[in-house]
């Protein structure tokens, strides 16, 4: 009977030592790096605390429980000071602490320590700290400091104003205007006749998901309409120019995106359009900047001549293409062979992400 009571006690406290040592190593290494970079010393100090708690716990020392409790309570005040009541910032600062705290409260973690005199105040204090964390997280969900508490008017929105240099029937940007107004000045389709619309044509992009794609492969494009044509991008970032009247493809540009499951998302929400002829009207700030800085450079002038209207296409692998809106070919004077590598000089680069 005596041997049976000792076994779970030793098993629990040595498992606690292993768990706390592993977490401590992560925090010591990462925390040291963060301090070297000029960041908060909190994580380095937390690594030291966890190492001490794990050691003390294995030695049946009551001070280990008090040390953890005090640091958990300190963490609450530190997190509030650093992030405020933002749930998404508080949660990653609390989660590990209350999980480890619950483990320390479990008798199996150290039966010998649970029987020591004076352990109850420490346990109740720790439980209070954990409950305070939960209460604070719950409160922060309903009191988000970044929440936008706005109201929507019941009045009809003001009629969209014409854009200088842009035909009313065109949709030249993701939100139609650079401000993202999303309103069209056209009045032919309205609430009285929208229910009578019929399908004029259907366009099949022919770009299906493959086994090599990311789990989140979607089709979310907002087409641009310039003149008589639509410009869309597909799931694999192929760029199509389509006749708006017939739905017939005029050309397709394929950036040859390397297949990989490492992309977080496999999608393309839209492209951007730029026309040298309407820059001064559509984007007066750009024209003003050019005028104040001596106009276009020789390379820019050449690019404006050979590729006066461009469609900009981003890709998942960190490339930004400029495509001639007329021919569907890369603009040779843009970057290298028509694209810019956005990963260039990025210190941390991997498929699907770069920092």
UniProtKB/TrEMBL annotation:
GO terms for cellular component: outer membrane-bounded periplasmic space. SUPFAM superfamilies: Quinoprotein alcohol dehydrogenase-like (SSF50998). InterPro entries: PQQ_rpt_dom, Quinoprotein_ADH-like_sf, Quinoprotein_DH_CS. Residues 171-354 form the Pyrrolo-quinoline quinone repeat domain. Keywords: Membrane, Oxidoreductase, PQQ, Transmembrane, Transmembrane helix. Its cofactor is pyrroloquinoline quinone. One of its GO terms (molecular function) is quinoprotein glucose dehydrogenase activity. PANTHER family: QUINOPROTEIN ALCOHOL DEHYDROGENASE (CYTOCHROME C), QUINOPROTEIN GLUCOSE DEHYDROGENASE. This is Pyrrolo-quinoline quinone repeat domain-containing protein. It comes from Psittacicella melopsittaci.
């Amino acid at each position: 009977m005596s041997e049976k009571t000792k076994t779970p006690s030793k098993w629990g406290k040595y498992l606690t030592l292993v768990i706390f040592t592993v977490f401590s190593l992560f925090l010591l290494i990462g925390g040291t790096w963060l301090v070297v970079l000029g960041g908060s010393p909190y994580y380095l100090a937390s690594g030291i605390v966890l190492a001490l708690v794990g050691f003390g716990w294995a030695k049946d020392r009551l001070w280990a429980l008090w040390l953890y409790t005090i640091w958990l309570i300190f963490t609450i005040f530190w997190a509030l000071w650093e992030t405020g009541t933002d749930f998404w910032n508080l949660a990653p600062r609390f989660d590990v602490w209350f999980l480890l705290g619950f483990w320390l409260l479990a008798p199996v973690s150290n039966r010998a320590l649970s029987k020591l005199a004076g352990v109850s105040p420490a346990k109740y204090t720790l439980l209070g700290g954990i409950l305070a964390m939960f209460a604070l997280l719950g409160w922060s969900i309903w009191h988000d400091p970044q929440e936008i508490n706005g109201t929507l008017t019941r009045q009809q929105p003001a009629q969209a104003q014409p854009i200088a240099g842009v035909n009313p029937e065109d949709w030249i940007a993701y939100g139609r205007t650079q401000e993202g107004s999303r309103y069209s000045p056209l009045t032919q389709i309205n609430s009285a006749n929208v229910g009578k619309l019929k399908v004029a044509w259907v366009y099949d992009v022919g770009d299906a998901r493959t086994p090599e794609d990311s789990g989140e492969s979607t089709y979310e494009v907002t087409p641009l309409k310039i003149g008589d044509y639509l410009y869309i991008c597909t799931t694999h970032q192929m760029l199509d120019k389509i006749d708006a009247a017939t739905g017939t493809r005029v050309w397709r540009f394929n950036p040859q995106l390397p297949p990989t499951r490492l992309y977080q998302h496999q999608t393309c929400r839209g492209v951007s359009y730029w026309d040298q002829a309407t820059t001064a009207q559509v984007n007066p700030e750009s024209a003003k900047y050019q005028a104040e800085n001596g106009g276009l450079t020789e390379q820019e002038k050449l690019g404006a001549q050979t590729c006066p209207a461009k469609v900009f296409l981003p890709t998942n692998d960190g490339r930004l293409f400029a495509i001639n809106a007329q021919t569907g070919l890369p603009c040779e004077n843009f970057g290298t062979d028509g694209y810019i590598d956005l990963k260039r000089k990025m210190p941390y680069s991997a498929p699907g992400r770069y920092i």
